[in-house]
Amino acid sequence: MMLKDETGTTLIELMVALMTGLVIFSALTVMVITTMHSSARVTARVEATQRARIAMVRVMEQLHSACIAPEIAPVREGSTGNSLKFVHQTGSAVSPTPILSVISYASGKLTQSDYATTGGSSPSWTFATTPSSTRTLLTDVGPIPPSTSIFSYHRYSAGAISETPQATPLSGTEAALTVEVRAAMSAEPMLSPVSDAAAASNVRNSATLRLTPPSFNEGSPSKPCQ
Length: 226
Fold this sequence. Notes:
The chain is an alpha+beta fold. Helix content is 26%, strand content 30%. It has 2 helices and 11 strands; from the N terminus they run H-E-E-E-E-E-E-E-E-E-H-E-E. It is elongated, with a radius of gyration of 29 Å.
C-alpha cells in the first residue's frame, strides 16, 4: 500500500512568505507616497514661483520707470527694508505724470499704495496724503531667512555699486544717493496641499536707477538717474 505524499508548505514557510510580501508592499507604498509628495512639492513650487515672479516683475518695471528726469532721486526718504517709497511716472507724454508709490510688506502680504501728485514741480512735487489706490501684489510672502527685510538700497562707492546696503530707514542724503534697489522674497504656495518649507520659492531681482548705461557717463558716477 502506497503512503500518501505529505509534502507541502509548512507554517514557517508561509509566515516567511507573508512577511516578505508585507515588506515589499510597505516599500512600494512608501515609494508611491514619496513620489506623490515630491510631485506635489514641485507643483507647489512652480505655482509659488509664478506668483512671486509676477509681483517681482511689476515692482521692477515701476522702478525702471522711476528716472523721470536727470539726477532726480526716485527713492524717497524714510524707505525701510519692508517699505519702499519711490516716485515713478505714468503715461507717454513729454511731461510725465509723477506718482508716489509705497510698496509695503506686513503679516505675509505685499501691498502697493499709490499717491497722486497735488502740485509742485520737479523735483519738489507734492503728493496727496490719502492713496488714490491700494492693491495687494502678493500674499503668503516674506523675507528670505535669515533676513527680516525684503528691500535693500545701494549707492555708488569708488565708481561701483556697493554690495553693502545703506542703513534704513533712509535719511534724505541716503535716499538721494540710492542708485539700486534690490528685492528678495520667499513665497509660499497657495493651491497645493504641500506645506513644508521645501515648497516655498525664493525670488530675487534688482533695478538700477539709470537713464543711460554706465559707459555713457564720464567720471565716477555717484547719483541716480544720470
